[in-house]
Amino acid sequence: LAAGTLCAVAAAVCRWAEYLLRPPMLAARTVPVANFIILALLWLRGTGGLAVFISFLMVLPVVYENVLAGIRSADAALLEMAAVFRVPAARRVRFLYAPAVLPYFRSACAVGLGLCWKSGVAAEVIGISGGSIGEALYNAKLFFATDELLAWTAVIVLLSLAFERLFLRLLALAEKWFGDLPDRPAAPCPIPQEPPQTEARREEVQRDVPATTVTVAYPMGGRLSPDFYTADLVSDLLSGGDSSRLYTRLVKQRRLLSSVNAYITGDLDPGLFIFTGQLLPQTTPEQAEEAFREEIETLCRIPAEAREMQKVKNKFEANTLFGELNVMNKAMNLGFYEMLGDAELANREVDAYGAVTADSILDFSRRTFRPERSSTLIYRAK
Q1: How far, rounded to the nearest angstrom, does the alpha carbon of residue 9 sit from its chain's CA centroid?
Q2: How many CB atoms lie within 10 A of CB 14?
């Protein structure tokens, strides 16, 4: 069993090893067992170890072919994912190759154990090994002792069944460590939801930081919310690059902030739409807050221009398409969307962003950016 398994592993790893092993395995599978017994008697010059040697030759190709087929039946997609995420070889063997090989190995053991007894006893009969079952069968033939012949046949059958059951039982115990992991669906854990915010929140702290920062956050829906794509597009509209609204107006033109950003948390659970900016030394937090309010009011009153929206949509589509060139990005996205419960969503996101309109931006902004739903943090520099 060990030799057949090692040969199968070598053949699976190296094509040249398979070519070298193919002729001897074919000979061991097709040449009559009597030929090998006679050759072994000539080579070994005695009957010591004859039965073991013949049993080895008969079982070796059975184990080799089955284990090799099992290795090659491993899921190619899972193996590719393991290569992308650099899964250690030991974990690949345990969780990918072992579950695929075990059914084939079990079948090889069931066939090989019966073949082992038949070929071993045949070798003892022809070689007349002293004190063996084969010698007893040979003597029964010489003296026409039918009762002894049937008795020894029954002994062979019983021993073969006993060894097969014992070995397969041990193999079943090994499957506890190398077999498929059972599916254990976890009961949903209810997560307490934050009650709707009905009044503005505000906090000011002073810390040893390089510059004062103003952050304003508004609650929004989770990853599967209908508003998610609109919120993401609005965040890119406001701060997606040097030509975005906030950077152009608050950093370049009015020179109130040294840096500015608008982003969403993107969590599965309900998240936040966040405005944040680092103040220049001459800017007060009140001025920064007022500037954010003006930009929010513009979002709520004036529809976004078609050209401005198309620029953001094109940027998202380009980033998505270029990201799919990387196998790891594909694997990460598929895993994430499968966790969401809809792997096909990965192929529909570009269309979902493309469906966002100026009216949906107005509606989202008016529902989300209300003063009573704001949470403001002033992080003052000492």
Answers
A1: 23
A2: 12
Place of tokens 């069968």: 137
Asked if pLDDT for residue 218 goes beyond 90, the answer is yes
Two tokens at 94?
């345990």
**382: CB partners within 8 A, 6+ apart:** 206, 207, 208, 209
CA–CA distance from 79 to each of 71, 250, 293, 330, 364 (Å)? 11, 50, 52, 15, 44
At position 59, the amino acid (one-letter code) is: V
Using an 8 Å Cβ cutoff, are 133 and 77 in contact? no
pTM of the model: 0.56
User: How confident is residue 97, by pLDDT bands cut at 50, 70 and 90?
Assistant: confident
Helical (H) or strand (E) element with 269: none
Q: Is 215 helix (H, G, I), strand (E, B) or coil?
A: strand
Alpha carbon distance 330, 214 (integer Å): 36
Would you say how long the chain is, in residues? 382
CB 218 within 8 A of CB 376: no
pLDDT over 90 (residue 294): yes
Give CA separation, 116 vs 51, 57, 108, 112, 279, in Å. 9, 9, 11, 6, 83
